[in-house]
Structures are given as structure tokens and as C-alpha cells.
């Protein structure tokens, strides 16, 4: 299946329109906003996310870049994306490490070409793990959420392109995401509204959800997610902080608003053989998947370019900076 699907990520000609950040936030319990969110969050089935985490960490196990386990993982990702109706799933190989590793990309295109906003969003997670670790939280959890969001969004009405990308070789120095970002054209960069990176989102013994940006500044992604958290989460609005170390970094370096979604402080079994399914908290999986899903759909839904005139136009929420913890 690897050979069947292997190709370089296609370049899409898009038009870009920038949305003012102030329009991204929404107050808690806003009924109109929640009704729109429900189109996505009511379809999210956390059991699906958990099942993906189980398969990746327990059935496949350690998914080290360049191994047979990575090939098995790539096949699984392709099969899942295609089962959701994506007929444009792409495998992007790269060999900067002296062996071949892979990114896997599923693209959701606007439903009506005549109503294409020209915007693009990227949702990412890394499918590899460190040697000896099943990587249930790091990062089967993010990959499971990525797959579920791709499933839910597959039939959602959007006027913006959404790329769901599972990166290879993150644990070897963000190699897959750096390769992918390097292949983006200037037009693609300019048209990308934001990049959401899901990494380690389900640990029972980790701390609270934090949105990390490379420069420690708010951006479009953190504004969208803070707003979504106010609308759909049972927890506090997530704070933002400053940290690199994950696949949001190469996109930031290309000038794209990007943020990492992760619970901190980290769990004690980070990068150990004990990163197993038994230590996954299903409520955390569901919470982050809903927040990111609502945030992405907020930007991709058909009325986004006219958001200020929309009946669901949101209002700002406050969210704060928190000193980084790991």
C-alpha cells in the first residue's frame, strides 16, 4: 500500500483572506455559537479516539521512524483516512536521516468550489514514538484525535481547505514536519490561517491543557482555541505559554500562526516503556479533541469570511499567559 499511495504533497492554488483575531473569541454559553459547534462536537466519538490509541500503542507498539512498525502505522493511517471518504490521501516520503520515513496527509477541500474562501488550516500530530516506548500518549493520543477529527470533518460543510497531517520522525528532531513545511510554496504559507499541533493530549497523570507558541505570544490559533474552550469545554479556558519542541515549530518558522496543544507538567512515564494505554484518560482525549475540532470548524465553516456580519459572530474572551512547565 505504501507504493500505491506514495506521492509528493500536491500544491493547491488558493486565495487567502485574513480574519481579524478579535472575531475569533466567543463567550461561554453562547447558544448560537454552541449550536454551530454541535455540528462537529456532537459527532466526536471519544471511543474512536481511544480505539486508535489502543491500536497504535498496543497492537503496533513502538513506532520508531524507519522501522517496519512505521510502515504498518502508515498503512493504518491511509486505510482509516480512506474509510472516511478521503480519496486524495497522500504519503510524503523523506530521507534526511539516511533512511526513509513518511508523512501522511488527508485533505478536506471546500464543498463548493464557487464558495472557496482561499483559506487553509493544518491539523497535525506525529505518528512515531521513541524506541522502547509504546507511545500511547506520545503521540498515539494526538494521532487518534487527528483521525477522529478527519472523520467528523469529512462530511462537514466548509469553504476552507483543511489538511490533516500525521508527521513521521518527530522524535528524531521534527524531521517530518520540517520536510513538509519546506515543501510549502509561498502562496500556501500566505494562505494558511493556522496550524494546530496535537501532541500528548491524553495522559491521566499530566497537568492541565496548555497552548504553546514558539514566541510565547497569542496568535490566531490560540485565539480560536481559547474561544472554543469557552464554548465547549467543561474545564477552564486553556492558557498559553512559550515552548517549541514539537511539530508546530517549522510552521512558525515559515510565518504561519501555530500552537502546540499538550498537558503540562508532563507525566512521569514520558519517553518510557510505561507510556501505555492504561495511563490514558479518556476525558482528556475528548476535551482536547472537542476544543480543537470546534476551533478548526469555526475558521473553516462557510460563513467565516463574513464572520463579522454572521448571526454567530463571537465576542472576545480573556485567556492568560502561564509560565512554561514540562
Describe this entry's structure for a reader.
- The chain has one domain (2-309): Aminopeptidase, CATH 3.40.630.
- Helix content is 36%, strand content 15%.
- It contains 10 helices and 8 strands.
- The protein has helices spanning 2-5, 31-41, 46-60, 68-83, 136-153, 175-183, 186-191, 220-232, 249-253, 282-300, and strands spanning 90-94, 101-108, 120-126, 161-167, 192-198, 208-213, 240-242, 258-264.
The side-by-side strand order for the widest beta sheet comes to: 1-2-4-3-5-8-6-7
Q: Which sequence of SSEs, written as H and E, runs from N to C? A: HHHHEEEHEHHEEHEHEH
- According to CATH, what is the class? Alpha Beta
Count of folded domains = 1
Radius of gyration: 18 Å
Number of helices: 10
CATH topology category name: Aminopeptidase
The tally of beta strands, per DSSP, is 8
Distance between the termini: 38 Å
* Overall residue-averaged pLDDT value: 89
Task: Summarize the topology.
Elements (H helix, E strand, L loop, with lengths): L1 H4 L25 H11 L4 H15 L7 H16 L6 E5 L6 E8 L11 E7 L9 H18 L7 E7 L7 H9 L2 H6 E7 L9 E6 L6 H13 L7 E3 L6 H5 L4 E7 L17 H19 L26
Parallel strand pairs: 3-4, 3-5, 5-8, 6-7
Antiparallel strand pairs: 1-2, 2-4, 6-8
Quick rundown:
The protein is of the alpha/beta class and about 325 residues long. The protein has ten helices and eight strands. It has a single domain (about 1-310), classed as Aminopeptidase.
Amino acid at each position: 500500500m505504501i507504493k500505491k499511495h506514495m506521492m509528493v504533497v500536491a500544491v493547491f492554488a488558493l486565495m487567502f483572506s485574513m480574519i481579524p483575531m478579535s472575531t475569533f473569541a466567543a463567550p461561554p454559553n453562547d447558544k448560537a455559537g454552541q449550536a454551530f459547534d454541535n455540528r462537529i462536537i456532537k459527532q466526536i466519538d471519544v471511543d474512536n479516539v481511544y480505539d486508535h490509541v489502543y491500536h497504535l500503542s498496543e497492537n503496533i507498539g513502538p513506532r520508531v521512524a524507519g522501522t517496519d512498525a512505521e510502515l504498518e502505522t502508515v498503512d493504518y493511517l491511509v486505510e482509516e483516512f480512506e474509510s472516511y471518504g478521503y480519496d486524495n490521501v497522500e504519503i510524503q516520503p523523506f530521507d534526511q536521516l539516511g533512511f526513509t520515513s513518511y508523512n501522511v496527509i488527508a485533505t478536506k477541500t471546500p464543498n463548493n468550489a464557487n464558495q472557496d474562501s482561499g483559506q487553509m488550516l493544518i491539523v497535525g500530530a506525529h505518528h512515531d514514538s521513541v524506541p522502547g516506548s509504546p507511545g500511547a500518549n506520545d503521540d498515539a493520543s494526538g494521532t487518534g484525535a487527528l483521525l477522529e477529527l478527519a472523520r467528523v470533518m469529512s462530511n462537514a460543510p466548509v469553504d476552507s481547505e483543511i489538511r490533516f497531517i500525521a508527521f513521521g520522525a518527530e522524535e528524531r528532531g521534527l524531521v517530518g514536519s520540517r520536510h513538509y513545511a519546506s515543501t510549502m510554496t509561498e502562496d500556501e504559507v500566505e494562505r494558511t490561517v493556522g496550524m494546530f499541533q496535537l501532541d500528548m493530549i491524553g495522559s491521566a497523570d499530566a497537568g492541565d491543557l496548555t497552548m504553546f507558541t514558539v514566541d510565547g505570544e497569542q496568535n490566531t490559533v490560540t485565539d480560536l482555541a481559547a474561544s472554543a474552550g469557552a464554548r465547549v469545554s467543561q474545564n477552564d479556558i486553556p492558557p498559553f505559554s512559550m515552548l517549541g519542541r514539537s511539530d508546530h515549530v517549522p510552521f512558525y518558522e515559515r510565518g504561519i500562526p501555530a500552537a502546540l496543544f499538550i498537558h503540562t507538567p508532563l507525566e512521569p512515564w514520558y519517553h518510557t516503556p510505561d507510556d501505555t494505554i492504561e495511563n490514558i484518560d479518556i476525558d482528556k482525549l475528548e476535551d482536547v479533541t472537542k476544543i480543537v475540532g470546534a476551533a478548526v470548524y469555526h475558521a473553516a465553516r462557510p460563513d467565516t469570511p463574513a464572520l463579522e456580519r454572521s448571526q454567530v459572530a463571537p465576542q472576545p474572551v480573556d485567556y492568560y499567559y502561564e509560565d512554561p512547565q514540562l
